[in-house]
Design goal:
Strand content: 25-35%
Number of strands: 47
Oligomer: single chain
CATH superfamily of the largest domain: Golgi alpha-mannosidase II, domain 4
Number of helices: 15
Length: 837
């Protein structure tokens, strides 16, 4: 999209390849590297067999190269598995038609998640060649990575990829080159640059037809100038040549880019939250689908639907959201239609994940020998855990825990004519397994009790003082730490809604992306006119409900849940906001009582301390968070899980000051949930009903592994489904336990099962593990319902690399700090005897 409707843009890129094929026919030394595998896909879907044959031949001749990445995605927003799946379409193409993937090349997007280096290395790719657009991202000004290129970019796990950071990607022209090329080459005049060649990146503009002038550029230049000489090259040819000349002298760069352009995803908060949730639940669906195939090896649950799910989620993470020049016509027909297509990717991926979860759950439930009406709760994580579950229950029914043989108390959230919508705590659900709750005739059950609506609530871990006027929390006292967590001197309350205005006064540094301009005079409006609606004792804890309002935000409903048996506080904020085209931003504030804190946040496969773990030129005002952000000082830490909104600012709101260094800041964490600061590409205004959830815990300093487990428990929900009479229509052998069961366990607390999926080639299953504690060691995987016959270490693209020894129901392997480890498992089901090939 962006320059035109998505469908028309697809046609432009397909025509570019038509012209490239002709150009190479006319000029055999011409080379071309498309913008992503998506370009190949558009050509493949719209050309006849003869055209496809010509393209394939040029790929085999290495005159047209195939990039590994599907599209130019926002690497800070995407999940770990989404980053990996962005290489799967090109890998399927290469596997089917021959050839090897060697590089990824993201154009336009200027900075990248540190984990992308690890993902590229885990996929076995050699090179990463971004063509950076530094609009609203002063990476070049501050970091000058183009002058350090090429260099090894090393990820959190130590995996490395050779990177060339290119300065923009505009088409080269003779007239410009006469003046600009000598200046460009000065960047590489240092004695530390050993190679005799450099890369001029890019021959095309944004989504435009093929520039025929580039065919004659080399001849024109070499005819006029003896030095330097130009030649066409693919990424692999150029990098192979430069790296061979550079030898062992290449520097190593570590760190996160604090991706700059990810702030645009907050322009469409509802669909961003939707896609964030889908990417987590897609992993649950894959795990349950694999388990269903172990129970019944005849099942191969809709592999094409899973591919479509990941494709749609990936396309939502792609960096184009709306029309070019949005600020001039935000309600134009084209922008509305482009936005509908973009949001449709998130909506379709959510539809598919719901569909696939229900199919997988039904396939498993069929083999559980329990009665109709039983509620089956599934745990997709590889450790036992509990969590809140919401279901509908008949008014004359109660839930019965079949594992504990006791009734389950619950909270009634709403009532219908014949049912009640309830919430209960499902405790001790087995790892990668399930637990069953029967529905039985209700005995006498005490209703959740409303208690005197005072502003103080507490449990064994915390004492809270609510602030009804702001609809937030004034004080949180940690009894174990004997410490107040909330900064009483802050102008904000804890979990307070903030609405920010003032960025319309242009030009300014925030919306115009000019670091030499003054920042706008922003004004912060805190939620007010609030009240405490109720405080209720429930079977799992105390629930306080508040409401407030703010500028252009008529209603903010907040639920604060203080759990009896878990050291955590959950905040659920339901917001009704007006659609406003004036420049705005929205935050939820979490002012921690720490004046010299150390901040840390989770990325896809590691942890970033922004004061030390960033590469040169990285962003310092907002940050892309995966599962948690932590604030530490002395021997205390507080950790917040942003379930729905991935962006955070630390210490202050975003003001457009574009700092060069991450200097000392106060311990305020701000969830950056909405903005419309971009004058182009992203969404111009948003309104309606939105939900933003956060979960807090605190204590002595916890390791990243424990925090990752805590974060995943909040973002990967327990999945629940009811056994219907259709599920039990026929009496068949049902080999599973009627109360609970587990299908896979891992013996290291710091190792997470990312996914367990059908192998792309159909040969067994793929188990992806992630080490989250930053420690190396051995890990044992046990599969009680799968008799293992063989196991292999593989790369992230599922290519076997090293055979492993297996016992009937377990396999052991080494894993490194923050490593992404992919295994191929093959075996026979112990439940049916079927062979999982």
């Amino acid at each position: 999209g962006y320059t035109d409707y998505q469908s028309k843009t697809a046609d432009v890129h397909a025509r570019i390849l038509d012209d490239v094929i002709q150009a190479i026919h006319d000029r055999p030394d011409f080379r071309f590297c498309p913008d992503g595998f998506w370009v190949f896909e558009q050509f493949w879907k719209s050309r006849d067999e003869e055209e496809k044959k010509q393209l394939l031949q040029l790929v085999k001749d290495k005159k047209i190269s195939v990039p590994a990445q599907y599209a130019n995605i926002l690497t800070g927003a995407a999940s770990l598995e989404t980053l990996i799946r962005s290489f799967y379409p090109s890998h399927r193409f290469a596997t089917e038609h021959g050839g090897a993937l060697t590089y990824a090349a993201i154009s336009d997007v200027p900075s990248y998640s540190w984990s992308y280096a690890s993902v590229l290395a885990a996929a076995g790719l050699k090179y990463f060649l971004p063509g950076a657009n530094n609009y609203r991202a002063p990476s070049l000004y501050f970091g000058r990575l183009h002058e350090k290129s090429p260099f090894w970019w090393e990820g959190p796990d130590g995996g490395r990829v050779l990177m060339w950071y290119s300065r923009m990607y505009l088409p080269p022209q003779m007239a410009i080159g006469r003046d600009a090329l000598p200046l460009f080459l000065q960047n590489y005049a240092s004695s530390t640059y050993k190679a005799s060649s450099v890369i001029l990146y890019g021959t095309q503009g944004d989504n435009v037809g093929f520039f025929p002038q580039q065919i004659s550029l080399v001849d024109e230049w070499n005819k006029e100038f003896a030095y330097p000489r130009m030649e066409f090259a693919t990424v692999e040819e150029a990098m192979d040549h430069i790296v061979a000349e550079a030898g062992d002298s290449l520097p190593v760069v570590r760190g996160d880019g604090a991706p700059y352009w990810e702030d645009g995803i907050a322009s469409d908060a509802v669909y961003t939250a939707m896609n964030r949730s889908t990417e987590e639940r897609a992993l649950s669906a894959e795990k349950l689908a694999t388990i269903s195939s172990i129970i019944n090896p005849r099942i191969d649950l809709e592999p094409d639907s899973f591919r479509a799910l990941w494709s749609n989620a990936l396309l939502y993470d792609e960096h184009t959201y709306g029309i070019r020049g949005l600020a001039s016509f935000p309600d134009s027909r084209q922008h509305i239609r482009q936005q509908a297509v973009k949001e449709g990717f998130a909506a379709e991926s959510r539809r598919l994940v719901e569909h696939l979860l229900l199919r997988a759950e039904g396939a498993i439930e069929h083999y559980i020998p329990t009665e109709v009406g039983t509620l089956v709760v599934f745990n997709p994580l590889n450790w036992a855990r509990g969590g809140l579950v919401e279901v509908d229950l008949g008014k004359d029914k109660e839930l019965w825990d079949l594992a504990k043989d006791e009734a389950v108390r619950f909270e009634v959230l709403s009532r219908g004519e014949s049912f009640q919508h309830i919430r209960f705590l499902a405790a001790d659900v087995p790892p990668m397994g399930y637990k069953c709750y029967a529905r039985r005739a209700a005995g006498p059950i005490a209703a959740a009790a409303a208690i005197e609506a005072g502003t103080g609530i507490e449990n064994a871990y915390y004492r809270l003082n609510l602030d009804p006027a702001s609809g937030a929390v004034r004080s949180i006292f940690d009894k174990e730490l004997n410490r107040e967590l909330v900064d009483a001197t802050s102008p904000y309350r804890f979990n307070q809604y903030l609405y920010v205005t003032g960025a319309d006064q242009r030009p300014n540094s925030l919306t115009d992306s000019r670091i030499n301009m003054p920042p706008p005079p922003l004004e912060i409006h805190g939620a007010k006119a609030g009240r405490l609606r109720s405080v209720t004792r429930t079977p799992f804890g105390t629930v306080a409900r508040l409401e407030s309002s703010d500028l252009n935000t008529p209603l903010i409903q907040t639920e604060v849940i203080l759990f009896d048996s878990q050291k955590k506080i959950e905040f659920i904020n339901r917001v009704q906001k007006d659609k406003i085209y004036k420049k705005e931003a929205v935050y939820f504030a979490f002012p921690f009582a720490m004046d010299r804190p150390k901040f840390k946040y989770a990325i896809q496969n590691g942890v970033v301390d922004p004061s030390v773990d960033q590469y040169p030129g990285a962003g310092k005002e907002w940050f892309s968070v995966q599962h948690w952000v932590s604030v530490e000082q002395e021997n205390a830490s507080a950790t917040l899980v942003p379930v729905d909104a991935p962006l955070m600012s630390l210490g202050d709101i975003v003001r457009g000051v574009w700092p060069r260094e991450f200097e000392e800041r106060k311990g305020t964490v701000l969830s950056y949930v909405m903005n419309n600061y971009w004058p182009t590409n992203y969404v111009g205004a948003q309104g309606g009903e939105m939900t933003f959830r956060y979960v807090l815990t605190s204590g002595n300093k916890a390791g990243p592994g424990a925090l990752s487990r805590f974060g995943l428990e909040q973002t990967a929900p327990l999945e629940a489904n009811e056994l219907s009479d259709v599920d039990k229509a026929v009496d068949v052998p049902r080999p599973l336990n009627r109360a609970s069961g587990s299908f896979l366990t891992v013996d290291r607390a710091g190792v997470v099962v990312v996914t367990w999926k059908r192998a792309e080639d159909g040969d067994g299953t793929i188990l992806r593990l992630l080490e989250t504690d930053g420690k190396s060691g051995k890990v044992t995987i046990k599969t009680p319902t799968l008799n293992l016959q063989s196991a292999w270490k593989a790369n992230a693209l599922e290519e076997n690399q090293q055979a492993l020894q297996v016992s009937p129901h377990s396999v052991e392997t080494d894993i490194g700090p923050f490593q992404i480890l992919t295994l191929r498992l093959k075996g026979v089901s112990t439940l049916s005897g079927g062979d999982l090939k």
